Amino acid sequence: MTTVAAYAAPAAKAPLERTTIERRAVRENDVLIDIKFAGICHSDIHQVREGWGEAIFPMVPGHEIAGVVTEVGPGVTRFAVGDRVGVGCMVDSCRTCENCRAGLEQYCTRGNTMTYNAVGKDGEPTYGGYAQTIVVDEDFVVRIPEGIGLDEAAPLLCAGITTYSPLKHWNAGPGKKVAVLGMGGLGHMAVKIAHALGAEVTVLSQSLRKKDDGLRLGADHYYATSDPKTFEELAGTFDLIVSTVSAPLDFGAYLALLRTDGALVNVGAPEEPVSLNLFSVIGGRKTLAGSSIGGIRETQEMLDFCAERGLGSEIEVISADRINEAYERVLAGDVRYRFVIDTSTI
Ligand SMILES: [Zn+2]
Ligand SMILES: [Zn+2]
After folding, report:
1. How many Å lie between the centroid of ligand 1 and the Cα of residue 41?
2. Is the pLDDT of residue 270 over 80?
3. Which residue range or ranges hold the Enoyl reductase (ER) domain (predicted)?
4. Residue 81 and which of 27, 115, 207, 233 are 20 to 30 A apart at CA?
5. Distance in Å, CA 101 to ligand 2 centroid
6. Which ligand sits nearest to residue 154's alpha carbon?
7. How many angstroms is it from 296 CA to the middle of ligand 2?
8. Sorting pLDDT into bands at 50, 70 and 90, what band is 52?
9. Is-same-fold flag (2-156+294-345; 160-290)?
10. How far apart are CA 312 and CA 179, in angstroms?
């Protein structure tokens, strides 16, 4: 075991503070990573505040981890000391179920092990990326290609894959009209990736405040959802809507923006159940769906794609003593578009 510095929430809703945690000794198939940057994801805040149910404390959040390998176990074959690597939302899964065998570890039928706020197969709690190091089985480590900075790559490990996976699954590409609902951490990556995939991209945001950014990042059109005319004008338009919004939505109103056979896919998760009149999906054979991050293989594919196209995240790098302030700013929508912690300041 090694003692390392970290930022943790000691209890639900408590501010994060500097502390130390134990990292396990490197096992046969483990990689020890010197963390350089860790993104702040909205779901870190949900979990610290127990918005998604009871959580494990102390909690070291962080599942957008970018760093450099400093030690490998004797059985490691894919990584060497000095490699630039990333870790996302999972650090283990059963590896034998149908989904794990298909590279869909995020849907492991026995439940995967989340990077933090979970208990590993060894019975120990997992701690995330707001820390100096992390030890992870090599099967859950991905390579960050040269040509993309570790700081702008960190958010790809959650925000990038969470949007890339549904865009690919629902065939965003040339000839497809894709709407991105919400222009935040997830939304701005969805715009970049959908545009790079060749789709015609529309941002649906509460206001036109971020319109210039949206168009610069690759959107073709930008509409305010606070304007009722938007819903008249865009009725029956989209093949795919990716909703990154975690606040309650009028799903009926958004389903009406889909063409026949269109899909509204949720990657944001409101804390409360939603209600829906099912005629919204019956008319037009529409799909209301969800999607969770992506498998390890697809995460590597996404990183390679983003590096090739120069698609880093738009970031604001902060020192660790500003994490609590950053949380408040995320909740206020005051970040363009992802906070990334410089973990050398922990
Ligand atoms: Zn996340
Ligand atoms: Zn499994």
Report:
1. 5
2. no
3. 14-341
4. 115
5. 7
6. 1
7. 12
8. confident
9. no
10. 20
Calpha distance 332→169 (Å, rounded): 31
Counting ligands in written order, the one closest to the CA of 128 is 1
Q: Does 267 score more than 80 pLDDT?
A: yes
Closest ligand to residue 63's CA: 1
Fold classification of 2-156+294-345 is Quinone Oxidoreductase; Chain A, domain 1 (3.90.180)
Ligand nearest to the CA of 185: 1
Distance from the CA of 217 to the center of ligand 2, in angstroms? 36
Cα(343) to centroid(ligand 2), Å: 32
Q: Work out the pLDDT band at 272, boundaries 50, 70, 90.
A: confident
- Residue 109 CA to ligand 2 centre (angstroms): 5
- What pLDDT, on the 0 to 100 scale, is given for residue 269? 76
| pLDDT tier for residue 93 given thresholds of 50, 70 and 90 | very high
Could you tell me the distance, in angstroms and rounded to a whole number, from the CA of residue 63 to the centre of ligand 1?
6
Strand pairing class (315-318; 90-92): unpaired
Amino acid at the residue 26: V
Ligand number nearest to the C-alpha of 296: 2
Backbone angles phi, psi at 3, to 5 degrees: -90, 125
Considering every ligand atom, which ligand is closest to the CA of 109? Answer: 2
Backbone angles phi, psi at 152, to 5 degrees: -80, -15
Are the beta carbons of 87 and 128 closer than 8 angstroms? no
Query: What is the mean pLDDT of the segment spanning 184-198?
Result: 97
**Cα–Cα distance measured from residue 253 to residue 243, given in angstroms and rounded to the nearest whole number:** 13
Would you kindly state where each structural domain of the chain is located, as residue ranges?
Answer: 2-156+294-345, 160-290
Looking at domain 160-290, does it have CATH number 3.20.20.140?
no
What's the average model confidence in pLDDT over 71-97? 98
pLDDT higher than 80, residue 335: yes
Give CA–CA dist 155/313, Å, rounded: 6
State the pTM of this model: 0.97
Ligand nearest to the CA of 102: 2
